[in-house]
Amino acid sequence: MMRSEKPFELISSVLGKIDSVSSIAGKISGILSFLLMLLISGDVFLRYFFNTPIPGTNEIARLTLAWICFLGIFYAYTNKAHVRVTLLMNKLPKYEPHFELIACFFGLIIFSFLTYKSSLYFWESWINRELYPAPIPVPHWLAKLSMPIGAFCMLVAIFFNMISQFFKILHKGEV
User: Closest by alpha carbon to 97, among 167, 162, 165?
Assistant: First the structure.
C-alpha cells in the first residue's frame, strides 16, 4: 500500500462511521414521526369523541418536531437526499468537486455558528431547568438540545465531505 492511500482510507472510514450514525439518526427521526402521528391522532380522537384531550400533546409535539427536524436534516445530508441546486454542476460536471468544496465551506461557517449559538441557548435553558407551561412538566431544554446535536452532526459531516472533495480535486476524481 502506498503512503498516499492512507488519507483516503481514513476519510472513507470516517465517512462510513458518519453514515452509520446518520442511519441511526434517520431511524430515530422516523420512529419519532410515527409516535408523533399516533399521539396527535389519539389526541384528536379523544378530543372529538370524548371531549378529553391528552394533556401536554402540544408541548410534546413541539419537543418531538425539533428532534425530527434536526436528526432528519443530518440523515438527508449524508444520504444526498436534500434539495440541491445543480444548475452549474450540470453545465460543468468536471468542476462538481470544486462547487461542492465551496458549498461545504459555507456550510461549515453556518453550522459552526449554529452549533455555538444553539449550545449557549441550550445551556441557559438547562441551567434554568426550563419547563413548558403545560398540564404535565415537559422539559423545554430537551427540545433545545436537538439543535446543537443536529448542527454538530452536520458540522462533522460537512467537514469530512469537504476533505473528501478536496482530495477528489487533488487526485482528479480518483477518490
Answer: 165
pTM score, two decimals? Answer: 0.85
- What's the rounded Cα separation, in Å, for the pair 50 and 41? 13
Buried b (16+ CB within 10 A) or exposed e, 121-153: ebeebeeeebebeeeeebbbbbbbbbbbbbbbb
Summarised one tens digit per residue, pLDDT across range 26-66 is: 999 999 999 999 999 999 999 999 999 998 898 899 899 99
Buried b (16+ CB within 10 A) or exposed e, 45-61: eeeeeeeebbebbebbe
Handedness of CA 72, 76, 81, 85 (dihedral sign): positive
pLDDT for 174 equals 53
CB atoms within 10 A of CB 107: 19
Please, are residues 174 and 110 in contact by the beta-carbon 8 Å criterion? Answer: no
Beta partners for residue 131, in sequence order: 139
